[in-house]
Design a protein that fits this description.
The complex is a heterodimer of chains A (about 90) and B (about 270).
Chain A lengths: L2 H5 L5 H18 L3 H16 L2 E3 L5 E7 L2 E7 L2 E4 L10
Antiparallel strand pairs in A: 1-4, 2-3
Chain B lengths: L3 E6 L7 H14 L4 E5 L7 H5 L9 H6 L4 H4 L1 E2 L6 E4 L12 H11 L5 E5 L6 H8 L3 E6 L3 H17 L3 E9 L1 H5 L6 H8 L2 E7 L2 H9 L3 H4 L3 H13 L8 H24 L1
Parallel strand pairs in B: 1-5, 1-6, 2-4, 2-5, 6-7, 7-8
Antiparallel strand pairs in B: 3-4
Classes of the chains: A alpha+beta (about 90), B alpha/beta (about 270).
The complex binds adenosine-5'-diphosphate and magnesium ion (MG).
């Protein structure tokens, strides 16, 4: 790697290989289609709406790698917590 | 000693499964254990030529399974190393000639009589790989430091885990410390971190591997090249010896050190 490359912090082939692998493995390991992700998203919104007012536009949901496993990480901005939780078949 | 049946596998072809099977089998036999190297690559047999035993094959694995001969008749004894045997694959048959249950039965019938059975798996994730793994308790996964090989290894590890193999260990083959150092290819540490699996050995890129394959003489028999020493260490670790994997980073640093020496040597030479 030349001095200029280093100066401009150009990614080395080694780094690109690492990053590409990490990305591709997340999806290989999870084996979840974008369609399924979208359905999970909608279901999550439905459930959480029972308890909180959330900013649906601001939801970020992604698969992240953790060792040999993959985690579903969601960040859901809460606007307001509802006062009374709806109870199942109460009264 | 209870027989240990170990499948050597990788997903991707051409990464060194057959080389590893041949050399580890020879090494373990030289340590005094009774070893069967089994070629499960039916239709594309290779282990026989890599071990240099191709001229002495009479029967093969499928003959045993079909009852054409008894198991001991199909085992080719290596004359150079005591206690080393090859169970050849059939060359003129296809993978469908055997079932998983038959392969498992074959491995089980070697239990008790031998200390180690190393099964050379075909590439891929289909029936050939599944059959090769069927009778094994443990797995050695071979990968080279390339994106496609590591990706395939990851898939294989996932499958082996789902088969319930109790021990899965990684071997990184064809490592080129010089290129890793220059940031041109993945290092052993990258592969290990990405695959997040136990590692049992690192084999450098070494032309003596090619030479020994051409001669049909496992490295363990004759020389002390870097690859040969790597096989010796891996065999030691399989036997439970505490041989630290520190050569992982050593290997990546050694290039630097060697360059210093070269530089130094050249200057001295010039006076
Ligand atoms: N560490 C190494 N250094 C140099 N060449 C190697 C090394 N390991 C394997 N090879 C070569 O790579 C080729 C493929 O190896 P092989 O063991 O047949 O792979 P596989 O059984 O996984 O298809 C062979 O020509 C072999 O000699
Ligand atoms: Mg092979």
């Amino acid at each position: 790697m030349g001095f200029l490359d280093r100066f401009f912090r150009k990614e080395t082939p080694r780094q690109s290989a690492r990053e590409r692998l990490q990305l591709v493995l997340i999806h290989d390991r999870a084996d979840i289609s974008p369609d399924t992700m979208e359905r999970i998203r909608k279901d999550l919104i439905k459930v959480i709406n029972n308890y909180m007012v959330i900013n649906e536009e601001g939801i970020e949901m992604d698969l992240e790698r953790d060792g040999r496993s993959v985690a579903l990480v969601a960040s859901i901005p809460v606007i307001e917590v509802k006062r009374k939780h709806p109870r199942k078949r109460d009264k | 000693m209870e027989t240990r049946v170990i499948v050597v596998t990788s997903g991707k072809g051409g990464v060194g499964k057959t080389t590893v099977t041949a050399n580890l089998s020879a090494r373990l036999a030289m340590e005094g254990f009774k070893v069967v190297a089994m070629d499960a690559d039916i239709g594309l047999r290779n282990l026989d030529v890599v071990m240099g035993l191709e001229n002495r094959i009479v029967y093969n694995m499928v003959d045993v399974i079909e009852g054409t001969c008894k198991l001991p008749q199909a085992l080719v004894r290596d004359k150079r190393v005591e206690n080393l045997f090859l169970l050849p694959a059939a060359q003129t048959r296809t993978k469908d000639a055997v079932t998983s249950d038959e392969m498992k039965g074959l491995c089980d019938s070697l239990r008790g009589e031998y200390d180690f059975v190393l099964v050379d798996s075909p590439a891929g994730i289909e029936s050939g790989f599944r059959n090769a793994s069927a009778g094994a308790d443990e797995a050695l996964v071979v990968a080279t430091p390339e994106v496609s090989s590591v990706r395939d290894a990851d898939r294989i590890i996932g499958l082996l885990e789902s088969f319930g193999k109790r021990s899965i260990n990684l071997i990184v083959n064809r490592v080129r410390p010089d290129m890793v150092r220059k940031g041109k290819m993945l290092g052993v540490s990258d592969v290990r971190e990405i695959l997040a699996v136990d590692m049992i050995g690192i084999i450098p890129e070494d032309e003596t591997v090619v030479v020994s394959t051409n001669r049909g003489e496992p490295l363990a028999l004759s020389n002390t090249s870097p690859a040969s020493r790597a096989f010796e260490k891996i065999a030691g670790r399989i036997l439970g010896r505490d041989i630290p994997l520190q050569d992982l980073d050593d290997l990546e640093e050694k290039g630097l050190f060697a360059n210093f020496i070269k530089l130094f040597g050249r200057r001295e030479g010039r006076g």
